[in-house]
């Protein structure tokens, strides 16, 4: 009987984009109306993905500037990253480009499991980030999966975590099967495995 795998997910993004609300909805099925920012919160959740039971260790990070020095540690230990912005704030999307580059640099890997999340899709009337703009960025990042989610309405909340977990699982399986080659990293194809099998191009998922 195989040992249950544990995967470490880090939720990143600027302050106020709804990282904690997304995480709380996924882990506890609750909507947090108001949230006091903390340095970090850690959650554990058992889920089943593609018939396999896994444990997710989820680190909900603070988005405030005084905690940016801690990000390097998060990035070193994380296996997959939810990069969250608010569709009501263009600057929150632009901040993620720097975070993504920092992740790739610290991990020395161009194919780190990631999902781009445009949160607050229930605030369509306040939208500042056009869907095509966010989708173009996800394509420029190597077809990183892009979802628009609403923590308030619990729209695409499970989907973003499951997609990220699936990416980590596939990467884990590839590395487990690959022979040791002097500790060198292997170059993997950029396309991701999505729902229903492998595909070369990801499409934007919106509500």
- Main β-sheet, spatial strand arrangement: 2-3-1-4-5-6
Tally of strands = 8
Annotated CATH architecture: 3-Layer(aba) Sandwich
% residues in beta strands: 15-25%
CATH class: Alpha Beta
Describe this structure in words.
- Strands 2-3-1-4-5-6 form a six-stranded mixed β-sheet, with helices on both faces.
- About 30% of the residues lie in helices and about 25% in strands.
- The protein is of the alpha/beta class.
- The protein has helices spanning about 20-30, 70-75, 90-105, 130-140, 155-175; strands at about 5-10, 40-50, 50-60, 80-85, 115-120, 145-150, 195, 195-200.
- Strand 5, helix 4 and strand 6 form a beta-alpha-beta unit.
- The longest helix has 21 residues, at about 155-175.
- The protein has one domain (about 5-175): Rossmann fold, CATH 3.40.50.
- The protein starts with a strand and ends in a 9-residue tail after the last strand.
- It is found in: Cell membrane.
Give a summary of the structure in a few sentences.
32% of the residues lie in helices and 23% in strands. It has helices spanning 19-28, 71-77, 90-107, 131-140, 157-177; strands at 5-12, 40-49, 52-61, 80-86, 114-119, 146-148, 193-194, 197-198. The termini are far apart.
